[in-house]
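Incident log, structure service

09:12 report received: a user says their structure output differs between two submissions of the same chain.
09:20 pulled the input from the user's history:
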Amino acid sequence: MYKLTTLSAAAMATLATALATPAMAAPDLKIALIAGKTGILETYAKETETGFMMGLEYLTGGKMEINGRKLKVIVKDDQSKPDLGRTLLAEAYGDDKADIAVGTTSSGSAIAMLPVALEYKKILIVEPAVADAITGEKWNRYIFRTARSSMQDALAAASTLKGGSVAFLAQDYAFGKDAVKAGREALAATGSKAQVVHEEYAPQGTTDFTAPAQRIFDALKNKPQPRLLQIVWAGPNPMNKLADMKPERYGVVLAPGGNILPVMKTWKNFAGTQGTIYYYHGFPKNKMNDWFVAEHSKRFKAPPDMFTAGGFAAASAVVTALTKANSGDTEKLIAAMEGMDFDTPKGKMTFRKEDHQALQPMYHFRIKKDQKNEWDLLELVREIPASELPLPLRNKR
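09:34 re-ran on a clean worker, output below:
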């Protein structure tokens, strides 16, 4: 009887182990990607998703796993609507049990999502929304941002201006107002002697720029030179329409911020015009960007764009953090991510410990006169290192 009992116990133990093994296998690491895939910013959102998935592929060697745990990406479309963004993030954390979330395209939607990350005590990596409030007054400890901020954009632009007069044309919503506010502050922060003489805001869907442009020209025409019209615009860019109004009659020079490739392809008549940009495929020289440009060109018959690079950067932050923490636990991730360096197609980025903003280089460009092909658009004037962009802390941590 004793022997039978012993054998039965051993058999039961073996059976129990066999049954338990699948359940004990490390669960998938779940990542929610929220983007405005329908609506005015859908091009940006689709680029972000492409870049994010390519980044995960490259960084995991095609295995789509980290430390033996499979990666599962859950993509959600918030249509750039704040209420929907908030709802989808809560759904991702609550119903889908996402370990970490990335998003979103619209600054308004991203700001609406911030309190949800706080409520669920889960990481949200903001990409590509740029509003300063995200890592400023609206920030909480669960928010990290790989995207550049409006202030980083503005500091890069301000670094190229030594004097003269500036007018801004921007969209009449959070992104535009935030960018112009940052532009003013950046000029002061960099010691530029350029003076802002006018701010002009137009609705997002504006197609007729006659009246706004004339107000800008009237404000600039008698002011000290150079006279710059700084264009801050998401979506279809008004640069060609403004050029048709012949701003040179008033000695006004157009100064575009960097834009997506399909928009910049229409700027061929503006050879020599200068501006600043977050990413252009031909500028960074590193192994990761070489792969990215070659592989994207092979798959899509075009090089990667600004927001594709942003998606890749977000993927790098996710992979680096999950690898370093060896866990999806929020507190372990925060400990890993504060001050964390991670490689991107632009080169190294660093999450600043105090506000979790990714510090990163920017680029001063000139539109090429001689373009070898349809995507050979810009030449590099100078890479602006992160150390030359004095980004203020605004989250009052």
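09:41 both user submissions now match this output. Likely a transient worker issue. Closing.
09:42 reviewer note: Residues 1-7, 15-23 have pLDDT under 50 and may be disordered. The longest strand covers residues 69-77.
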